[in-house]
Known about the structure:
The structure holds two protein chains of two kinds. Chain A is mainly alpha-helical.
Amino acid sequence: MSDPDPIKLAWKASNIDAALPDMEMVRSGADKFYRQIRRRNAMEYIACAIVIVWFSAYAWLLPSAAARAGAAMVAVGSLIVAWQLRRLASAVPPPDRAAAEPILVHQRAQLARQRDALSSVFTWYLLPLIPGMLVMCFSHVLDHGAKAWLYVTRSDFIGLIPFVAVFTAVWLLNQRAARRLQKQIDNLEALIGRDG
Amino acid sequence: MGQGRSSQDQDARYIAAARRYGAAIERLARGYEADAELCRDLVQEVHAALWRSYGYFEGQCSERSWVYRIAHNVAVSHLIARRRLKRESLSGLDEIEMIPACDDLEEEAGSRRIVARLLATIHRLTPADRQVMLLYLEDLSAAEIGDVTGMSAGAVAVRIHRIKALLAQPYAEKGDLA
């Protein structure tokens, strides 16, 4: 006996009746989804506001004109990062919105969006912060105006090492994560249409 | 007024689908979540997503495909959110071990034990193979499985062949013993 139908029958017979969920519960479940979205957005706004207030205070209080300009640039850079985060997050449709597409096509699109975000992390996450950080690091030099380059010392560059190390580590970790996602995308692409 | 009618229509379409596919949604949820309490949460998540989806379902595909796509999408998102996608703990259909042979098929047929064995196997499958297995058990045709998952006809055919072989193993062994 090799017909697997008895197993199918057993599977389907394991749960024939399902109680219809209470409509209020269903609606509150849908509300919960939107509440989670709103809470996530609110947290992003709060984090962004804290950074902006912090560096705006620097831009106001620091004695050096160049340092104030650098702090203002970091605040603007943080705004750009927050906007990009929001743009990338909103590009992912919720599961119900994605039902117009087959499951694996939707999953592939989600993974591809994550991969693109990770592989381009330098341009949307790191680059907006770099000008402000550099201006703040070299503010004591820039305050000398046109002859600023004469006041650059080796210690100024040594002071940059922690920032370079952190930014490089962030970039490398994201590139590694993007490569892992690419392997999953390759597997899904093979399932969607290239082989069996 | 129009909004009210629209909302009532959404409720009515959702209720009809929930009546038709409610049992299948619960079976699918069990295939993704072994923990009973989390499984109930997952079923609720699927129903909430299904209700939302009827705000804009206009026959983009068959209703059956629509419901299964939503259910699987929610379930996969649930898996990812619960960090259960540990690569080392999941296997493909080509490498998974057989379902243990049954001592007494007649006695076991229709019992909970066979379903428990099925679930134990399903819970070890990778998401893509799990989707095919669950849809196959729900009696979808290969073409419908391709429509729901987006998997190529060849990929579906290979997986169904493997599933049939996997499901037939206990019976084959019983025959061997006889």
